[in-house]
Design brief:
globular; nine-stranded mixed β-sheet; two-stranded antiparallel ribbon; Inosine-uridine Nucleoside N-ribohydrolase, Chain A; 308 residues; 18% strand; binds alpha-D-ribofuranose; binds calcium ion
Amino acid sequence: MTARPKIILDCDPGHDDAMAILIAAHHTDLLGITTVSGNAPLEMTTRNALLVSQIADIDVEVHSGADRPLHVEPKHASHVHGRTGLDGPVLPELERRVVSTDAVTFIIDTVRQNDDVWLVPVGPLTNIALAFMAAPDIVERIAGISLMGGSAGPGNVTPVAEFNIWADPHAAHLVLASSAPRIIMAGLNLTSQYMVDQVTADRLNAMGSVTGTFAAQVVEAYVEAGLRIRGVPSANMHDPCAVMAVTHPNLFTWTDSHVDVSTEGITIGMTVVDDRGFGSAEPNVEVLRNIERDAAIEVFVGSVATYR
Ligand code: RIB
Ligand code: CA
């Protein structure tokens, strides 16, 4: 039995972030959750991370982080996740509090005090970039970065850019250019293969548990957003892919490719994946290409089933 990977989950809950928390808390040694402005303002993404850990009774520290990107203006995705970042599910009164409002120091200290920590950012990369700038020594210390972001195909917020990268392109550029031992990218080309719909929501509801009912309501709200935006009653489970790339690598295929990030102009936020083969630049990223969807759905449903 291999040891559970030690991870810090950096997120902007967000419906899919919320499901990523449930998978991470079950399948990893979750050293902490850090929050960042993204799907919603920092106050809301932090509230949502606390609520998910409260609903599922997960014993994990939450540290809030950056409330704005490095240079561009804050952008949110309320058209997908709602004003609160987690519209849809019935939510309890918030009882939990953050351990600190300094996610960057938490990331730095945790990496310095633990070997082989994976950083798993599933929102804009602001906190990770700030930590790398403040403490360059941690870049070589981590096991790697497994991020949800970018795309080896079309974007979502623009024809070429994916939201997490687009929301803070300068942070993404810095992180992807870092000398981290490994960088795994779960881009839209991959996460578009990992869709859930009412069938999965029904399985979660049938659990008859607090967390199963919550997860079902999250999926249903996310599916409704898919219907509203794309005309299809399904939802991409983007963020769980970055977690499972660390916990269940056997479910994925990938290529070692060079990836850079555009930080200006019409392509701002685009991840430029060099698939030329001949003449390609030195690979710096493991770009996920395929996922075994059905098995990955069982990882998700099976994780939810372990909570109250
Ligand atoms: O583009 C998808 C990403 O943006 C996901 O992480 C989702 O939660 C949003 O943050
Ligand atoms: Ca996210």
